[in-house]
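Need a sequence for this fold. Nothing fancy.
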């Protein structure tokens, strides 16, 4: 941990430093470390939307969708036009088989990218198509 902290230039109790560490862990597949670092960031700054996204992402990657949803909602409360978070939230709801909330989240993602020009907008469309295909079977 000391070498990672030194590499990232972590200096102390700064929420953004813990958020950067969380994303470093996410990129390296260290999901528990990512969640822990992001939780430290949130403890220091509850309005750090990136930290909330990191918590949600780490939980979702661990297939803990029920735990990921509240973190996505916290992130979206702080950054309501975050297309990636709306898409990921919708997918989490799909895995929870909560199709009403999934539809609402994915609809919001589609509203934010009506032409499907953003990769996250295209992903939202792919999730919708996948769910529709499954429902038609």
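Here you go.
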């Amino acid at each position: 941990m000391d070498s990672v902290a030194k590499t990232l230039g972590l200096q102390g109790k700064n929420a953004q430093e813990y958020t950067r560490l969380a994303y470093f862990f996410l990129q390296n597949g260290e999901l528990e470390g990512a969640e822990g670092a992001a939780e430290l960031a949130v403890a220091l700054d509850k309005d750090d939307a990136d930290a909330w996204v990191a918590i949600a992402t780490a939980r979702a990657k661990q297939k803990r969708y029920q735990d990921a949803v509240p973190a996505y909602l916290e992130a979206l409360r702080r950054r309501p036009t975050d297309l990636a978070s709306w898409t990921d939230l919708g997918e989490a709801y799909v895995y929870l088989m909560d199709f009403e909330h999934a539809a609402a989240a994915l609809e919001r993602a589609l509203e934010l990218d009506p032409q499907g020009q953003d990769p996250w907008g295209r992903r939202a469309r792919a999730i919708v198509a996948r769910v529709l295909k499954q429902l038609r079977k």
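For context: Confidence is low (pLDDT under 50) at residues 1-5.
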